[in-house]
Amino acid sequence: DAxxxxxxxxxxxxxxxxxxxxxxxxxxxxxxxxxxxxxGQGPQFxxxxxxxxxxxxxxxxxxxxxxxxxxxxxxxxxxALLLGxxxxxxxxxxxxxxxxxxxxxxxxxxx
Amino acid sequence: QQQVKQSPQSLIVQKGGISIINCxxxxxxxxxxxWYQQFPGKGPALLIAIxxxxxxxxxxxxxxxxxxxxxxxxxxxxxxxxxxxxxxxxAASINPGSARQLTFGSGTQLTVLP
Lengths: 111, 114
Prior knowledge:
The structure holds two protein chains of two kinds. Chain A contains no helices and eleven strands. By secondary structure, chain A is mainly β. In chain B, a hairpin with a 2-residue loop joins strand 6 and strand 7 (62-67). Chain A binds chain B through residues 4, 31, 33, 35, 40-45, 48, 50, 55-56, 58, 88, 90, 92, 94, 96-105, and chain B through 6, 34, 36, 42-46, 49, 89, 91, 95, 97-107.
């Protein structure tokens, strides 16, 4: 049973560019959340998707947007990248508000 | 009110010793308290979790102690091993419907010396 899978694992972008990160939830899970983890800090909640709609959102600007597809997979898009967006982006999946599982993350470096 | 405060920031323990990490919260609406273990370059992995209707939960060498009146909870790692060296995060969440959003502590870097 595959867990939460994310791609790409590492990427480097230039300030001002846009990036798309992808996530496939654990089998049977219908809820996908995205978290940002800066170096040396705990993950911070960005937003959550359920039934293809954004259900909750953390304290992140509109430059951060997402999408959930009918197969429950999800994308995180970040526009107008800033140096401060450099972080590990984690996807988490769950079903019915139960145990939350995280993927390995996508390391984004903005130069 | 959404914060979860975690201490210590770093912890060094001898092999076979007990590692204790503490967390405190303010929001009494939190109803789920998981602990995650994270190795360098990896995503967080769920270790153990507790709900506020119990005071203690044990799984193998890992135990969560929960003090609802003090709004504190802690992770105890018994017989600590070098393989336990990792960063540990406590978290808390509310479950409005099915939308569980985790609020994490700042993490504790545990080093277990051989």
